[in-house]
Amino acid sequence: MLRQRQMYGAHVQEEGKRKKKARRFYDYDLLVVIIFLTVFGLIMIYSSSAYNAQVSRQPSNYYMVRQGQIAVAGFILMLIISKIDYHFFAKITVPAVVVSYICEILVTFTPLGIAVNGKKRWLGTRSLRFQPAELVKIVVILLLAVLITRLGKQINEWRVWGMIAVLIGPLALLVTMNNLSSGIIICGIAFVMMFIACKRKWPFIATVVLGITVIVFAPSVAIALEKAGILHSYQLSRILVWKNPEAYPKSGGYQVLQGLYAIGSGGLLGKGLGQSIQKLSFLPEPQNDMIFAVICEELGLFGAVAVIFMFLFMLYRFLVIAGNAPDLFGAMLVTGVLAHIAIQVVLNIAVVTNVIPNTGITLPFISYGGTSVLFLMIEMGMVLSVSNQIRLEQQ
User: Fold this and answer.
1) What is d(CA 96, CA 100) in angstroms, rounded to the nearest whole number?
2) Residue 166 in 3-state DSSP?
3) Global confidence as pTM
4) Which of 141, 181, 198, 344 has its CA 20 to 30 A from that of 133?
5) Which of 188, 74, 186, 73 is CA-nearest to residue 132?
6) 3-state SS, residue 154
7) pLDDT band at 354 (very low <50, low <70, confident <90, very high)
8) Cα(390)–Cα(265) distance, rounded to whole angstroms?
């Protein structure tokens, strides 16, 4: 009897040690990458925008300070979200979808939508505004993660695909009406998440082949779509400029050509931080979509490759977290964020290098844009929240 008690006591002790050894994981590598990209972005925003800020009679650090304030607030929000159980976000998905629809309807069909540079994309006031399209990106990730988790194997059924299209399609269409680039990103996020979740792959492969075909015959397709009233004239002009920017050196091709000049003049190591020539009123709003061109000019091929590798490392951390997530919902949540960042980075660099037509896509964490950096931090908080629920057991 005594022997049995001793063995039971030893077993309890061993179990207690195992429980003590188990601990939660927190991806500090990802946190470091986020901090690096954000700080690097602030430096490049200052470098690329100082001249334009002074021309506009603002302090040279005007854009950097504004971005920095929102980035700090977003970083604090990210840390708070990272400590919340990510399953909480599944509970607020339906209200979030409703809010997204309301915001997009207000932007598109009411005077509350604010137009800047001829593009009606903002809600709020001139001094304090946000882009609902950034909210929609997160909402689509949440909605699809919830649906894929709850539907299980039913996600492979055609009727389920139709249901998802009915839920997300109108929202994506509302975004696309005012912001083609964000509409493309939203559709891309849905495409990647569904591709990973579904066993039936051939529709996705067929879609990719169709997309490549459309790109190859883009001018003819664009002209047909413009005549049908699907594309606006300015969107058609972007495609024509993309194919032959030299034919429009003083109009649509101006920004593309200046960006290519900046990239080409940077060489291997660049002209040096702050030494860009193209940002001196040659490259329109260099702190926004075309900031990668300034990076290439000032830091050269070395700097451009370093930035790309940082994004690749970030995506790798997403893969690690998704692969070790406690459940399917966490894995799909991280996969959606991975798709968002990957698509946006690829499209921005492709636009700057004129691989695809100019669609006005920012470079995550680096381009100027308060709404973008704020919602990116929220996404990073959700990813870190998933990582924080991964349990490690030390041997």
Assistant:
1) 6
2) helix
3) 0.88
4) 198
5) 186
6) helix
7) confident
8) 46
